[in-house]
Structures
1.
Amino acid sequence: MLKMSFIERLAVSTVATVLALLVGLVVVAVTGYDPVVFSRNLLEGSVGSEAAIARTLMFTTLFILTGVSVAIAFRAGVFNIGVQGQFVIGGFATVLAVLKTAPLLPEGTIGGVVLLIVGTLAAIVAGGVYAAVPGILKAYGGANEIVTTIMLNFIAIGAVGWLVEGPFRGEGQSAPNTERLPEYVGLPQLIYDSPSFSIIGLGIALAVAALIAVLLRRTSFGYDMVTSGHQESAAGYAGVDAKRMIVATMTVSGMVAGIAGAVFTIMIQGYYSDPAGIGTYGYDAIAVSLLAANNPLGAIPAGLLFGGLDSAGSYIGISSDVPAQLIDGIIGLVVLFISAPELFRMAAKRTGLGGDEQ
Amino acid sequence: MSLAGCLGGDDSDDSGGSGDGTNIAIVSSPAGFDDNAFNDLALGGLESAKEDHEIEINQVEETQQAQYQSTQSELAQSGEYGLIVLVSYNHTEALTQNAADYPDQNWMLINDHVEEDNVAGYIWANHQMSYLGGVLAGTMTTEEFSEGSGVTAPSSPQIGFVGGVDESLINAYERSYVAGAEWVNGDVEVDVGYIGNYTDTDTAADIASSQYGAGADIVYHAAAAAGRGVFEAAQAEGRYAIGVDSDQSQALPDFQDVILGSAVKYINEGTREAATAVAEDDFGSITGNNTLSLEQEAVDCVIGQAFEGNLPDAVGQNIQEAKQGILDGDITVPCAATGCN
């Protein structure tokens, strides 16, 4: 089943999504709301207006990036559940780097572009380093990366929460927020006039997905990563240092999560706040990646689906009486239908239990 | 054809304040609604304004601070709302942009302020309510009292304070509390401790336990959720505590046997006032920074539900006298609502 063709995979994902929506509509009807109105809200909220489309694409951008981050690790047989933490550390690093570098550079477009690059590089480094830690612990200490990455999420959220609360709180702020990035540091508003979305952000996400797809499929480095994850002995026989590959996989995965953090900071929020309230893109990304069968390019349509659902959720929360939580329920159903069998299969493969498709 | 007649009836499509109905949107803080605190109180105030005025409330729950920018602008863009209420200072950054971008939209911001003509910021006189909490503690520490699960140590006038983060805002709670206790009893000794955050109940309990151990019989906290640890310590040590922000003997009934009283602020007074102003087309009267204090009866010190009617008469008398003194200007409460300098 893991070796399904692309068409089969697409069919499974589509059927699961449609099924989840249908069950969701039944739940809507049972709870006493009109499923027709709800469906219309879903459509209006995700693609019904320019603002809705921009919002959908904003969520999509983050889901693609974090989804690709998860996919890299899963592809290589490493379970990086710590994308949320790497996303937070990366985003915070962007704010720090930009704020510290800004006084040294001229204001205006050129300074802005340089700061964007500095901020993004900082996020890539920070996300990569933060992900390398559990990679090293797994490779050389035998620590289960699922446990360590989950723990590191809490540490990232707690640490950044403390930093914005105290040492990096903006001057005169009664709320625990950092200083805002300078006005001239931001992605230009092309096509969509939305304060939180730029088509360039989406372009970056698509480019990263393509780049990672090429890396995994067309380079020897990518080949080594995937084989050492799935056939360690074969990889070892071919002269690949499996331990180093684990660290490399986690680092690359974390670097992409860092980019997601940078895009979040620069495109959406413009400052950093308590990470408990910035959303759970790094966790949702696990579902995105599973829906995409851990294929970096598959993360694009999967990210679009999740982006559309989240966007509809925001719209429903604002414009309709239907509880927006129902959207979370539908997302949960999609995940359930698609990934539950997938998860069991992967777990079986990893532990050597269960017999099919070895 | 009676088409024209049909149209005539409800052609009053003018948005916002005027007309016979007012639409008000309220966007939650990251804690969300049903929190038995902040968000529910804010919503409750709007609902009580509904009794006197024709108001439609749209409740928008949004728990991600990162979404406030787009949620606010979407609500403003619709042009349907006479007032958009934003719960908590998590909205401040987003509002600094949106208040300027939507100059015709009226906003109410709870617990902070943004310097724009279309924003009504509301804060509560934290220092006054803490002063009253100090009066309660200062009175009780020399009374002989053993109702509930605690007992006082009347021979030594010693009390405690546990704060969340050692910062200006919480320093105002501390100093006003100390001043209130000293107003009752010049000899009172106050132990002060800070946790370093607002969530760590264990550390809060440790600090409170050591204060009780050192001879304090009543501890007041300004530590939000972490304050629960103070109540746990009070139960363990057989002493008393004072709650903060809302009547915590009601919010945390498990601890009503040690919560002598709570320093409370009525968030709902603020939202009711703002909703009423907008419904009466008088938003201009509340723009700017509003501090709700004793004068509006928006802060108070209430007795815990297990102790109502049981406390010595001196408590009620002293609190009443202190309130009057503050209102008359005979008592100057140190610090201000937003902090100490």
Note: The CA atoms of residues 317 and 324 of chain A lie 5 Å apart.
2.
Amino acid sequence: MRPEKISDVCMSSDRNYHGKNGVLRLVIPANDRSVRRGLMTIKSGMSNLSLSQDDWSTVELVIAEVLNNIVEHAYANSDTGLIEAHLDYSQDTLHCKVIDTGRSMPNGKLPKGAPKDVTCDISDLPEGGFGWFFIHHLTRDLHYARHANQNTLSFRLPFESEH
Amino acid sequence: MKLNHKDFDNARLVTICENRIDAVCAIQFKDEMRTLTDAGPSRVVLDMSQVEFLDSSGLGAVVAALKAKKAEQTLELASLQPAVQKVFHLTRMDTVFAIHDDATSAMASIADAS
């Protein structure tokens, strides 16, 4: 990852408009507003796929949760971190790899994503912890690695046509 | 974060005038909802028709608003777009909230929903 400070979303893309597949690479600063802008960039970058609203909402939710986790945890108390996302997609599947140089996951492992119990009193309802549940539940081939100072999370999102 | 509200007999309709409730605005949403329920009548209906995207922090903020309501009050939701409905369904939060198809039917219904 490039070390210089980046003030906004940077994107390079290599799309094949005729074959309806492509590659997107984004580098964004690790903050909430850049995550929002990054998701908009991905949406327009993948527009050649004409994804269904349902498929896009899954892509957006999963990538949002992955990026939010990096902002909130890997780069907690830091406002200079960068996040790099590689997206490689076809009509059937999105392959995604997200890299950061923040803190490691707790114990070097993926957090579990068990569903939260909501059959409780209102006062005991969970207000957080849904993010990893969405990621585990909606992705396939979820993998995390820590090498040197770098976290890499990779996963696949099958589109409706494959279901 | 812009929330509009309109008061009816024993009910307050709060309209979210944003298309995203995400990590950028979740805390502000939670705080503003707290103000609106604190000063609100026995029913508060949240019109989410403009919300196209809700992430886990946005869901957490809506749950926090439910937990912050007064004991004798109800907080109901109306007009969930498909991406928002999906988040409520996956987490089973759709079994916790009373959810109306739209704000009009919510305001027309009797105040016995929890």
Note: The first strand of chain B starts at residue 3 and ends at 8.
